[in-house]
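In the design runs reported in the main text, the only information available to the sequence generator was the tokenized backbone. The following block is the verbatim input for one such run; it is reproduced so that readers can re-run the procedure and compare outputs position by position.
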């Protein structure tokens, strides 16, 4: 895995950069994943508001801080992690099965015989597409989550959009948005690296492709959660 990571960074500077493949992968990552991510984060935001209101009423008998508290939670944690795990399931599994199939059908060996570097041809366009796609989708997820939270706050708690935004301004800072973007980039970058690693090491047969796909989703999900902990712990020192 570390060798693949080093080769990817080295290939970034040595080129050539395959622009057409990059935009095709960006379309696959960002555009094709947009609907399912927006749909899921809306429900995640609604649950966050409802649970926050329930527990604040139970503990301090007041839910006035729910909009601001929920906005911080959405920006710093919820939208980025939900987006990354959904991308891991959809994009990571797709990449692992695609690269794994190329491996067992000897298409990767054919690339090497033609003098084409598999890292440059397969990994680097997917890596940058997932980094940029992770950033874009995290921004869209944050906006969608905040809008859904605003709507459910008005319908369930009685806070108008103006009251929600006013409460959000007291809790949210610009660096919360910046931290969310950094998380989106890091989460997006780890998915193709894990998927291509298991794809390149795929065993023969349909069972091997299935195992590579399963391992990709499991390992990438664990990596995302660990990276989330490391980044959150690091960001806490910047407040």
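Verbatim output:
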């Amino acid at each position: 895995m570390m060798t693949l990571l080093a080769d990817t960074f080295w290939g970034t500077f040595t080129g050539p950069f395959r622009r057409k493949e990059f935009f095709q992968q960006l379309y696959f990552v960002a555009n094709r994943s947009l609907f399912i991510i927006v749909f899921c984060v809306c429900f995640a935001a609604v649950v966050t508001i409802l649970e926050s209101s329930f527990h604040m009423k139970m503990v301090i008998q007041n839910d006035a801080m729910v909009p601001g508290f929920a906005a911080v939670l959405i920006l710093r944690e919820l939208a980025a992690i939900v987006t990354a795990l959904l991308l891991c399931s959809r994009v990571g599994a797709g990449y692992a099965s695609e690269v794994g199939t190329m491996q067992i059908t000897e298409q990767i060996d054919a690339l090497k015989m033609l003098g084409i570097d598999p890292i440059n041809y397969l990994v680097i366009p997917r890596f940058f597409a997932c980094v940029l796609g992770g950033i874009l989708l995290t921004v869209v997820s944050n906006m969608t989550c905040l809008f859904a939270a605003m709507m459910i706050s008005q319908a369930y708690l009685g806070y108008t959009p103006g009251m929600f935004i006013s409460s959000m301004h007291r809790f949210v800072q610009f660096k919360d948005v910046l931290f969310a973007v950094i998380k989106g980039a890091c989460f997006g970058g780890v998915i193709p690296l894990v998927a291509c690693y298991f794809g390149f090491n795929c065993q023969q047969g349909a069972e091997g492709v299935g195992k590579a796909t399963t391992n990709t989703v499991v390992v990438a999900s664990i990596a995302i959660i660990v990276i989330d902990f490391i980044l959150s712990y690091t960001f806490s020192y910047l407040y």
